[in-house]
Amino acid sequence: SQELEQSPQSLIVQEGKNLTINCTSSKTLYGLYWYKQKYGEGLIFLMMLQKGGEEKSHEKITAKLDEKKQQSSLHITASQPSHAGIYLCGAVYNTDKLIFGTGTRLQVFP
Amino acid sequence: KAGVTQTPRYLIKTRGQQVTLSCSPISGHRSVSWYQQTPGQGLQFLFEYFSETQRNKGNFPGRFSGRQFSNSRSEMNVSTLELGDSALYLCASSLATVETQYFGPGTRLLVL
Questions:
Q1: Are residues A41 and B108, on separate chains, in Cβ contact within 8 Å?
Q2: For residue range A33-92, what is the model confidence (pLDDT) as tens digits?
């Protein structure tokens, strides 16, 4: 079973709409990373959350880590075609390894 | 600062051959991690090197090995290639373990 589950698996939205991607962990997180990947390319670092209740924003993307540090959400406001790609959450547990979620494929159409 | 670079970008091999992939980290970064990404398994951790020492290892067979040089550059080797080794291999570097990782563009390996 996956330690880190993302939902939804895929998302198709119209340009200008808001959307949310969730990342749920089966155990307490030491740190949670969000990355974006264009198909077949490397991952682009978006942001990292460590403290329960923490919220960070970059341009139109906001990520939150819940108080219990077992779930994170990524929210995109007024989506644009440039937001299209695969969003991956990555978790650090006590092993120091970065474990990735299943990924969410986002498509934004005009 | 230049980003993480990986060579080659694309590779085609046949079953039974061996392959070596290279990763040059961001200048000053001492930790290099390797990942395998496939449509079926997603992104899976292979191993991490820090100061020329393997610090962490994922659940991959011994055919997958790596090393890190004194300049922090890293290589990954896969021996006796199998069809299932076809994947995008990603390398990431960070200042140290548990620091934010920055990824390279990947090497796409196709095994025929």
A1: no
A2: 999 999 878 999 999 998 888 999 988 999 999 988 799 999 999 999 999 999 999 998
Put simply, the answer to whether B103 touches A92 (Cβ < 8 Å) is no
CA distance B15 to B82: 5
From B89, B81, B7, B106, select the one nearest B47 (Cα to Cα): B89
Strand ranges for B18-106 from DSSP E: 19-24, 31-38, 42-50, 53-57, 64-68, 74-78, 87-94, 102-103
* Paired tokens of B63: 């055919």
Chain A residue set in contact with B, beta carbons under 8 Å: 30-31, 33, 35, 40-45, 48, 88, 92, 95-103
**Does the beta-carbon distance from B97 to A96 stay under 8 Å?**
yes
Q: Are B72 and B25 in contact (CB under 8 A)?
A: yes
